[in-house]
Amino acid sequence: MPEEYVAIGLLALAGFLLGGVYSTWKTAKAVAVVLGIFALVAVGGAVAWFL
Questions:
Q1: Which of 6, 15, 35, 51 could form a disulfide linkage to 20, CB 3.0–4.6 angstroms apart?
Q2: How high is the pLDDT of residue 4?
Q3: How far apart are CA 27 and CA 4, in angstroms?
Q4: Model confidence over 1-44: pLDDT tens digits?
Q5: Residue 14: other Cβ atoms inside 10 A
């Protein structure tokens, strides 16, 4: 299994989490902030994995 699959999976997870941020922003801002933090961590992990 190529190593790039992990980074691609992390980017996909970040996109999924950002979609959750978008959908929950109006009703539950605290949950949206937590999801946004998790998305940033996933993107950071993907960038670190590519480097």
A1: 35
A2: 87
A3: 36
A4: 677 899 999 999 999 999 999 999 999 999 999 999 999 999 99
A5: 20
Q: What is the Cα–Cα distance from 21 to 10, expressed in whole angstroms? A: 16
Any idea what DSSP says for residue 30?
H
Residues 3 and 46: beta-carbon distance below 8 Å: no
Residue the block writes with tokens 């959908």: 23
Q: What is the model's pLDDT at position 6?
A: 92
- The alpha carbon torsion through 21, 16, 39, 13 (nearest 10 deg) reads 170
Per-residue pLDDT at 3: 76
- Give the dihedral sign, CA 26/23/28/45: negative
